[in-house]
Structure formats: C-alpha cells, structure tokens
Amino acid sequence: MDRNSRCSKEIALAIQNRAKNKDKNFTLSGSWKKVVGIRDGFKICAVDGEWIRNNISVLYGAGGHGYVHEFIPLDEIWVSTHHYPGCGCDNLKSENQPVSRQYFDSTAIHEITEFREMVKGVPFWKAHEIALQMERDVGILEDPHTEVD
After folding, report:
1. How many beta carbons lie within 10 A of that of residue 132, not counting itself?
2. pLDDT band at 108, cuts 50/70/90?
3. What is the pLDDT of residues 28-72, one digit of tens each?
4. N or C: which end of the chain has fewer CB within 10 A?
5. What would the DSSP string read from start to end of 70-105?
6. Is 27 helix (H, G, I), strand (E, B) or coil?
7. 1-14: per-residue pLDDT in tens?
8. Angstrom distance (rounded) from CA 109 to CA 126
9. Which of the pair, 149 or 130, is modelled with greater confidence?
10. pTM for this model (two decimals)
11. Over residues 113-128, mean pLDDT
12. What strands, in cross-sheet order, belong to the sheet with 76-80?
C-alpha cells in the first residue's frame, strides 16, 4: 500500500475500524495455508503468498493479520513461505526464494506487534514503524528487510 495515497489511508482505516466486527466463525483454508504453531495466542500460518496475490488480494506481501487484511481472521497471523518479485528484501539469491526460519519468525513478530498496536487504535503506518523497530530490537535479523545467508 502506498503510504501517501489518500485512497490507501482510507482503505487501511476502514479495514481497521471494521476488524472488531468480523465474523468469528469465518476462516479460509486450502493447500496454500498451513497452521505451523501458536504464538502469543495467535495461530501462525505459513501461506503461499503468490497464491494469495493471485486469488484473494494483490496487496498481500510478506505477512499479514486481520487488522490490515479483511480476509484474515483476528486470531491468525499469516507469513509467506517465499519471497516474491519486488518484495524489497536484500541478500536474495533467487526470485521466489523460500524464506529462512529467521525471516519467518521475525515477520511473525512484526505482524503480532503491528496487530497489537492497531487494536489500540494506532494507524497502520505508525503501527508498521513500531513493528519494524520491534524486529530490530529482537534482533533475529540484522535488518528486517535483509534475508540471512
């Protein structure tokens, strides 16, 4: 999402404001999504981000949660299993490279942090910056936008 676009800001705010009204029984499933663990009360799901971009939302990136993506249940954190063309990550050896365990875990921390901030009413872009700082503070990756060797 373009952080300066009025449309992007309006969409992000609408999703955030409606999140608490989600149907608790709604969930999506398929071979593209696998629950791989529980962390801080969230189901952590490894997902095929390319499948999601092709079938659900072109805006889906490396990870997500229910306060940013209207199709993700509030008790789930989604993390892509592969980097995608244009993801902006450094140190990639190939297009569509699988993410490392470190990258996956760092992204999950980012998404949980961002979710918790947005639940408190913090706008997406500010919550995103707080989540990036949390990733840096935890230090699984040297930089949240750099894959490990």
Report:
1. 16
2. very high
3. 999 999 999 999 999 999 999 999 999 999 999 999 999 999 999
4. C
5. TTS-TTEEEEESB--TT---BS-SSTTPBPPHHHHH
6. coil
7. 555 577 788 888 99
8. 16
9. 130
10. 0.93
11. 96
12. 33-39, 42-47, 76-80, 63-65
Amino acid at 54: N
Instruction: Give the residue carrying structure tokens 């840096």.
Output: 136
Residues 131, 111: Cα–Cα separation, whole Å: 7
Euclidean distance between CA atoms 30 and 39, whole angstroms: 21
Write the CB contacts of 123 (distance below 8 Å, at least 6 apart in sequence): 9, 12, 13, 16
Q: Kindly list the distances between the CA atom of residue 52 and the CA atoms of 78, 104, 112, in Å, as whole numbers in the listed order.
A: 11, 17, 20
- Written as six digits, the tokens of 29 are 């499933």
